[in-house]
Structure formats: C-alpha cells, structure tokens
Amino acid sequence: MHVVVMGCGRVGSAIARRLEEVGHSVAVIDQDPDAFRRLGPDFSGRQVTGLGFDRQTLLDAGIDSAGAFAAVSSGDNSNIISARVARETFGVQHVVARIYDSKRAEVYERMGIPSVATVPWTVNRLLRELLSVKVSELWREPTGKVLLMRVTVTEGWVGRKVAELETASGARVAWLVRFGDAQLPTGSTVLQDGDQLTVAVTDEVTSRVHTVVEQGYQGGRR
Which of 43-52, 86-95, 173-182, 210-219 has the highest mean pLDDT? Predict the structure, then answer.
C-alpha cells in the first residue's frame, strides 16, 4: 500500500520509517526540507517539500494512488484541512489526523476521521489506524489472564447481532463506539459498519477472536 505522511517531525518520521520497514511505499510531505533529515539515510520513499493541503503537493506525493494518509504536523488547522482534502477530494480510505485540541478531535472523530489529541497519541496507535488492523490489544490486567481488545467491525459482521459475535468468538463485548459516541450494547444490538468494540477476552480465545473477526459471520459454524 502507498501511504502519504504529512509532517516530518518526531512522530511523522517514525511512522514513515516503520511503514517502509514493513513493506509499504511511503511519501513524506513537509514545508521544511531540513526536516527530512529525521528520516535517516536508509529511507527510500518520496520526500516532498510543500503544504500538506496543497493539491499539487499531494499529487506529487502520490495521493491519487494512496491507501492511507496521516496528517501529523505541529498545526491543528493544517492537519484538519489536509485530512479533509485527502478524504473528501481524493477519496483516501484510511485517514488519521493528529489534533492537539481534544474538543476538535472529538468533532473529527464524528466525521469519520480518527483524530487523537497529543497526550494519548502514540506511533503504534497511528499505525493501527492507518493499516486498519481489525483486532488489537488495549490493556491486560496484572495476572495476565484477562485482557481488553479493540475490534473493528468487518464487512462480514455488519448487520449481525452482538450476541452472535460473542458466541462465535468467545469474547464479551464491554462497550461500543459508534460515530464517536460510546454506548453499552445489548446482545440484540445490530452491528454497523465502522463500529469499534471493546471486548474482554482470555488468552485462550485471542486467536479465535482474530479468526472470527476476519472471516465474518459463518452461519453459526466455525
């Protein structure tokens, strides 16, 4: 997949290097050409000097063939504008924006653009959003036996009930986030595209959760 990263600071350069390490092609945009030094001598992706929301700059970075876009500059406004251009003008499927103002971040979450304020922001979370990892570990209790995992509802589970997912996976759904709003679902809650579930599991069923989420609903047979 081709990924465009806007902002070559500490976070942007780390993301770009990590993406390239796992086999993706990467283009990095920054207004300051000196910022590209953070990428190191081994980085082979594109380095584009310019504004991340400028159409020609984005085209030079390959936005028209990109599967993901990360706006991680130091400015909220620049990140917001460039993320919207990537999503609305070029139709990039996976877009994330680094937002310092937590209130703004909430607004853009509701618009379908994952936006995280500075404090909880990590490179790993950003990569998870960009690469659309469907199941990931969030927290593990001290004994290590029980953990919370985040599950992104896949196409094969859209329209199915929470109870069906629980039965198939062995996980228990703790809460659900839909369009930026958290709610406590019941077994009869129907899953929708874009839903984010937080589920409680034991180590014994984690691999089963991954398999069930990726395979989709199988009519009760696993």
Answer: 43-52
Alpha-carbon distance values, 37 to 25, 30, 75, 205 (Å): 18, 11, 20, 44
Average pLDDT on 23-37 reads: 95
Q: Whole-model pTM?
A: 0.58
Q: What is the pLDDT of residues 102-123, one digit of tens each?
A: 666 666 666 666 665 543 445 6
- In the block, tokens 């994330």 appear at 96
